[in-house]
């Protein structure tokens, strides 16, 4: 048994106390400084992300958090920046869509209101004039209904609820039927509408939605082709897929801009 007197142990501790105190005085400030640096390294990016989240909640999507780090926090910051960029682009597209829809609805609605007011006031001099006004109202109302159907389709697609009624359809025949309906509108503006359609090209799809897509393409070509220009609707088979294209003469200002 090894025995050491209590006085010896006490003296040993007393001799060590100055050294331990000096070591503590030196180590504690460094430990405190190190803890502050580590805490700021961890919490600063999270604080920046919190501020950026608050800006996004207020409707500001031009937000980018760059931590310059490659760890989990850095990946989170980059993912957040990419998310806000895409949300901002979606918001911009929605604003443009609303502006375009409002413009497309305003013109036919103005015509409907004007001619219906004329009919109500009895300004149609002859029955033929009344029938002409009624035909214009019917056509403009049809345009309004088509635009509203487009908006409903877009909302269904955006919500992931669009239901496709798939059936076999002759794409060339469908495109030819749509082109025939638009032929008069092209002729009134002096635009030549050519058809390069492949007969017997059968595909599986939703006929009303395909028809609406073709109508939108031809309507855009009719509106944005200069008078005396040309437009062509074509369909062809490319491997297992079928492709429909609508080409038209560019407007002069588009050509001037190098488009």
Brief description of this entry?
The protein has 259 residues and is of the alpha+beta class. The chain is built from 6 helices and 5 strands.
Characterise the protein shown here.
This protein is an alpha+beta fold. The chain has six helices and five strands. The strands form two sheets. Strands 2-4-5 form a three-stranded mixed beta sheet, covered by helices on one side. A two-stranded antiparallel ribbon has the order 1-3. A hairpin with a 2-residue loop joins strand 4 and strand 5. Helix 1 packs parallel to helix 2, helix 2 runs antiparallel to helix 3 and helix 4 runs parallel beside helix 5. It is elongated and about 130 Å long. It starts with 5 loop residues before the first helix and ends with a helix. The C terminus is likely disordered.
Distance between the termini: 100 Å
Low-confidence stretches: 254-259
Mean pLDDT: 80
The rounded Rg comes to 36 Å
User: Helix amount, in percent?
Assistant: 55-70%
* Number of discrete helical segments: 6
The strands making up the biggest β-sheet line up spatially as 2-4-5
Q: What summary fits the major beta sheet?
A: 3 strands, mixed
Bin the strand percentage: 5-15%
* Elements, N to C (H/E): HHHEHEEHEEH
Beta strand count = 5
């Amino acid at each position: 048994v090894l025995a050491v007197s209590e006085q010896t142990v006490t003296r040993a501790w007393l001799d060590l106390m100055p050294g331990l105190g000096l070591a503590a005085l030196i180590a504690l400030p460094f430990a405190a400084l190190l803890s502050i640096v580590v805490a700021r390294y961890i919490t600063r990016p999270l604080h920046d992300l919190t501020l950026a989240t608050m800006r996004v909640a207020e409707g500001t999507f031009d937000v980018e958090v760059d931590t310059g780090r490659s760890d989990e926090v850095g990946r989170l910051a980059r993912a957040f920046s990419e998310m806000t960029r895409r949300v901002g682009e979606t918001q911009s597209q929605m604003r443009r869509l609303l502006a375009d829809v409002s413009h497309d609805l305003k013109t036919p609605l103005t015509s409907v209101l004007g001619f219906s007011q004329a009919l109500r006031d009895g300004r149609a001099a002859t029955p033929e004039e009344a029938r002409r006004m009624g035909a214009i109202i019917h056509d403009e109302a049809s345009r309004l209904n088509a635009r509203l159907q487009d908006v409903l389709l877009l909302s269904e697609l955006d919500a992931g609820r669009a239901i496709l009624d798939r059936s076999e359809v002759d794409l060339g025949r469908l495109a030819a039927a749509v082109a025939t309906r638009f032929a008069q509108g092209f002729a009134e503006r002096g635009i030549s509408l050519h058809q390069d359609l492949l007969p017997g090209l059968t595909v599986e799809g939703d006929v009303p939605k395909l028809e609406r897509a073709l109508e939108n393409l031809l309507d855009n070509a009719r509106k944005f082709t200069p008078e005396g220009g040309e437009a062509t609707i074509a369909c062809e088979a490319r491997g297992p897929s079928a492709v429909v294209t609508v080409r038209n003469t560019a407007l002069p200002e588009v050509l001037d801009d190098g488009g």
